[in-house]
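Saturday, quiet lab. Running sequence design on the structure tokens for the scaffold JK sent over.
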């Protein structure tokens, strides 16, 4: 079903304002999404009515808060079709989830073991493994990309031979490429490797079923899917999480502590030391309700159709000047479009767009190895979500015409 973008947009208070006398065209949801009133109200209501700590106070507020917090975990479980809430660890963001894995899963690796990464990874799925490789003698192998920004699968198959972990993004935050995760998981199954999915750009935009994807671990951040900042999710298969040592120590992650040592708590709390992000988890639960009401299938269809429109329009109107990265087929990519415009620096392009109240991101997008592979320093990235429609892509195109005229490029 097509999205009623006008109705959706009305749910987001941020769009009530004008910037530089113009309505806000927000094309930076790849960095963080805007938040609907329903999420803001759920968090306000928590603070106004039941605020307490979780799993501690045996009093009215404490019990209500604990229930609301654990209900949010149940919503996440259903949203990604996990088997049990024990498989859902609340983190601060996706970055923390990946660091947790590099630490805890990394501690199970032996000197000489190998991990497979790709050139399209976000730094969050690179640096934690590099830190591990500094602590232990771990080999990091890298899969390159083809001209359309898709993984070289033949190379991946060869390099995957004997690796312990394949850590790959489900969708690139620069190219939009949606990776053949099921194929990668099948390869991993044949040789006893574990699959870690960075699904930061995937989960907010597509129906996600961890069983169908057949991944062992998956991470994402709440703030890219209409939820608040400060909350992320690490999914892991229960039997694997059971075997991993904790990441950080403190209250909540223990059953008992003596001067001699400690006994770790059950899942999922074993990985949640200290006071968790309670209001944020409740906000994420409200975001999931909101997205579920719209329907993740509908969201994905909207994204494909908007991406197709954007690719067509930008190529038609700016073909001589624009270089768009990533797959040309909209169904193979997500709703973010990275491009270079003539020889103008990405920051200059974004500054002119900003004068038109169009928010895009310019830079290396925390993907420096990818920039190196592409042979560039930066791109402009326009990324869409449920509150964007074709008129905003038109606005982007018109503003790019001004960029072209301002910098005196040929038409
Ligand atoms: C693909 C990908 N992975 C990881 C991250 C890190 O997310 P966070 O900063 O929320 O931890 C991002 C954020 O942009 C991302 O796009």
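Result came back. Writing it out in full:
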């Amino acid at each position: 079903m097509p999205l009623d973008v006008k109705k959706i947009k009305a749910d987001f208070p941020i769009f009530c304002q004008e910037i530089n006398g113009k309505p806000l065209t927000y094309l930076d949801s790849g960095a963080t999404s805007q938040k609907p009133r329903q999420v803001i109200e759920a968090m306000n209501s928590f603070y106004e009515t039941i605020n307490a700590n979780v799993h501690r106070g045996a009093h009215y507020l404490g019990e209500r808060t604990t229930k609301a917090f654990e209900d949010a975990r149940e919503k996440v479980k259903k949203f990604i079709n996990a088997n049990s809430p024990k498989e859902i660890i609340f983190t601060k963001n996706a970055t923390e989830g990946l660091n947790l894995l590099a630490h805890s899963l990394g501690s199970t690796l032996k000197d000489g073991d190998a991990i497979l990464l790709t050139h399209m990874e976000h730094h969050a799925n690179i640096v934690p493994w590099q830190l591990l490789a500094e602590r232990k003698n771990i080999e990091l192998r890298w899969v390159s990309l083809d001209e359309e920004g898709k993984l070289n699968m033949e190379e991946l198959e060869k390099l995957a031979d004997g690796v312990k972990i394949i850590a790959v993004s489900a969708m690139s935050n620069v190219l939009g490429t949606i990776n053949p995760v099921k194929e990668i998981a099948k390869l991993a199954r044949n040789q006893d490797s574990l699959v870690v999915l960075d699904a930061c750009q995937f989960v907010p935009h597509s129906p996600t079923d961890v069983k169908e994807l057949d991944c062992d671990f998956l991470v994402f951040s709440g703030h890219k899917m209409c939820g608040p900042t400060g909350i992320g999710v690490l999914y892991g298969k229960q039997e694997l999480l059971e075997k991993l040592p904790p990441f950080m120590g403190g209250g909540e992650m223990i059953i008992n502590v003596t001067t001699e040592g400690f006994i770790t708590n059950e899942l999922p709390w074993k990985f949640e030391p200290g006071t968790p992000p309670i209001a944020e988890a409740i906000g994420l639960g409200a975001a999931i309700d909101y997205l579920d009401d719209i329907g993740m299938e509908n969201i994905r269809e909207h994204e494909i159709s908007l991406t197709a429109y954007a690719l067509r329009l930008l190529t038609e109107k700016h073909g001589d000047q624009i270089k768009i990265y990533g797959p040309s087929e909209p169904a193979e990519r997500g709703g973010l479009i990275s491009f270079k415009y003539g020889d103008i620096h990405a920051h200059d392009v974004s500054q002119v767009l900003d004068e038109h109240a169009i928010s895009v991101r310019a830079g290396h997008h925390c993907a420096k190895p990818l920039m190196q592979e592409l042979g560039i320093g930066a791109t402009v990235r326009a990324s869409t979500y449920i509150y964007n429609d074709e008129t905003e892509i038109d606005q982007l195109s018109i503003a790019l015409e001004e960029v072209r005229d301002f910098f005196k490029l040929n038409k």
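Notes for JK: The CA atoms of residues 81 and 330 lie 26 Å apart. The chain is about 40% helix and 15% strand. Ask whether to fix the surface positions before the next round.
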